[in-house]
Design goal:
globular, 3 helices, OB fold (Dihydrolipoamide Acetyltransferase, E2P), 2 domains, single chain, Trna Endonuclease, Chain: A, domain 1
Length: 241
């Protein structure tokens, strides 16, 4: 069953520029064609494979970026799939979770007294958030999901040693007496369930199962994507087999 969620919102400023995806040159660089027929190199704010979001000719939306020193004038933010719009920006989930923690909180977490982002652990690793409560600390790591097949949200879409390392950190924190959560944000609205993509990264699937069995909590948050707005809406069930 799903649980309702106090709404947290991210809105991209300025008009969105429609384009068609052509090809991905590097992890963070793609070639697109805008509505006027011009070809542009754009920044890709996602290091993953973007499975299902990078078909040549696919409709996408860009934001204009005028920061000094940038090598590209646009960033890719959204793509249109048969299941609806998808936000491909991996920074958005952290912004959504931060907004939720600053407002109504997240399901299953005690009311936060204070929240700190980008927490560095003594061994040098870093997690996305630590939330201070009256009765202790909760550590959170946030992951973005853009891949959905037949209603199942899948993570990761590529081998992720970094993701496995984060699960190890969360497990260590639980063993030290803290609360620790792995949070997944599904940046599209056609998912009914989340599973680890064992066919892509079996080691991650095993590590997620092990972390969960050792007390790391898992939360999967669904988002409604209506460009330029992304809104957290509810939790989704998950399987870690």
């Amino acid at each position: 069953m799903t649980a309702p969620l106090g709404q947290a919102v991210v809105r991209f400023p300025g008009p969105l520029t429609p384009a068609r995806f052509l090809r991905r040159e590097k992890r963070f660089l793609a070639e697109v064609e805008t509505a006027d027929g011009m070809r542009q190199w754009v920044h890709v704010p996602n290091s993953g494979a973007l499975t299902g979001c990078n078909t040549p000719g696919q409709e996408i939306l860009l934001t204009r970026e005028d920061a000094p020193g940038r090598k590209t004038s646009y960033s890719w933010r959204f793509c249109l799939t048969p299941g609806g719009w998808v936000c491909v920006d991996t920074l958005v989930p952290n912004r959504l979770v931060a907004a939720a923690l600053a407002g109504p909180g997240l399901p299953g977490l005690p009311a936060p007294a204070r929240m700190r982002p980008e927490v560095r652990l003594p061994e040098g690793s870093r997690l996305d958030f630590v939330v201070e409560h009256q009765d202790g600390l909760t550590f959170l790591e946030v992951k973005s999901i853009t891949w959905v097949e037949e209603g199942v949200a899948l993570f990761p879409d590529g081998v992720t040693s970094r993701g496995r390392r984060h699960l190890g950190c969360l497990t260590d924190l639980v063993q030290q007496g803290h609360r620790a959560w792995q949070v997944f944000v599904v940046q599209r609205q056609d998912a009914r369930l989340m599973r680890p993509a064992a066919a892509v990264d079996p080691a991650y699937a095993r590590e997620l199962n092990s972390a969960w069995r050792q007390g790391v909590r898992i939360m999967v948050l669904a988002a409604r994507v209506q460009p330029p707005v992304i809104t957290l809406t509810h939790t989704l069930p998950f399987e870690v087999t």
